[in-house]
Specification:
The protein is α/β, with parallel strands linked by helices and about 290 residues long. It has a single domain, classed as Rossmann fold, CATH 3.40.50.720. It has eight helices and seven strands, in the order βαβαβαβαβαβααβα. The protein has a seven-stranded parallel β-sheet with strand order 3-2-1-4-5-6-7, sandwiched between helices. Strand 1, helix 1 and strand 2 (about 45-50) form a beta-alpha-beta unit. The radius of gyration is 19 Å and the shape is globular.
Length: about 290
């Protein structure tokens, strides 16, 4: 996939963004976040680890350091703007510029229809899953742009692409996350910013184990597939897919490159769009 993909504000020649040397991973104390943080360290990156549980983060930091990389523990709530700003500053003091941001921290609400949802829980999920990535990007992206570029990975979900009957806060939040990533791509691509919506599939985690939707599941996504995609993104191997959605367990770096070589990446491929009427005609109001 060496040629640019249409769909953003990029010109005919894309900026070349160097491979990442440092990363900040949220929700890094357990599950997918922990696996990604350790995988990035194994790939040669220094890693800032952000979550609320300092003790668990210390364990992950020890594992990162055991791989010969630097680690910094950032105990913070992603919904707290002041805490996020301070955490990013601490990470940059310890590790230098942040080249890769991985927005992994997230929650899911009770699996009930919207009219049965608890309003406080509903909004708390949106706060974590939308306000959190917004605050992290707001704090990290300006430095990336000042240095000529960087990469943002959002751990998204297929739930953000379709209608489902329950857990509506989670679904709403993942759709919103697509829009955050897409907006960053549109505004920052020409300045070297690359953004990716990575759906991890269904990995065995505390969250997925608690979900009624997965009680009978026998096939799970290997977390190593998620880590592989994020590591390749960190190295710049999927930059032509900036602004788009990829799914671990279905997409691999090789399959994505192959599809690109076939010219299958049109301007709307793997991006959130409303499909028009078959005739292509718009409504009477022109929208």
């Amino acid at each position: 996939m060496s040629s640019p993909v249409a769909g953003g504000r990029q010109g005919p020649v894309e900026a070349v963004v160097p491979p990442a040397r440092t990363a900040l991973v949220t929700g890094a104390s357990r599950g997918i976040g922990r696996a990604v943080a350790v995988g990035l360290a194994r790939a040669g990156l220094d890693v800032a680890l952000l979550a609320r549980d300092a003790d668990r983060l210390a364990e992950v930091a020890a594992e990162v350091r055991g791989l010969g990389r630097r680690a910094v523990v950032l105990a913070a709530d992603v919904t707290d703007g002041g805490a996020v700003t301070a955490a990013v500053a601490a990470a940059e003091t310890e590790l230098g510029a942040i080249d890769l941001l991985v927005n992994n921290a997230g929650r899911i609400d009770t699996e009930v229809p919207l009219w049965e949802a608890d309003p406080t829980e509903w909004w708390d999920v949106v706060e974590t899953n939308v306000r959190g990535p917004f605050l992290l990007a707001h704090a990290v992206v300006p430095g990336m742009l000042n240095r000529g570029g960087g990469r943002v990975v959002d751990l998204n979900s297929g739930a953000g692409t379709r209608d489902t009957p329950d857990a509506t806060a989670y679904n709403v939040s993942k759709t919103a996350l697509f829009r955050i990533g897409g907006s960053l791509h549109e505004a920052g691509h020409a300045r070297g910013l690359r953004t990716f919506e990575v759906a991890p599939g269904v990995v065995v985690t505390d969250m997925t184990r608690s979900m009624r939707a997965h009680t009978a599941r026998t096939e799970w996504t290997d977390v190593a597939d998620v880590v592989e995609l994020v590591v390749v993104i960190a190295r710049g191997g999927l930059d032509d897919l900036s602004g788009r959605y990829v799914r671990a367990g279905t997409d691999t770096p090789a399959s994505l490159r192959f599809r690109g070589s076939l010219g299958e990446l049109g301007p709307d491929t793997r991006r959130l769009r409303v499909r028009d009427w078959p005739s292509g005609r718009t409504g009477q109001n022109g929208t």
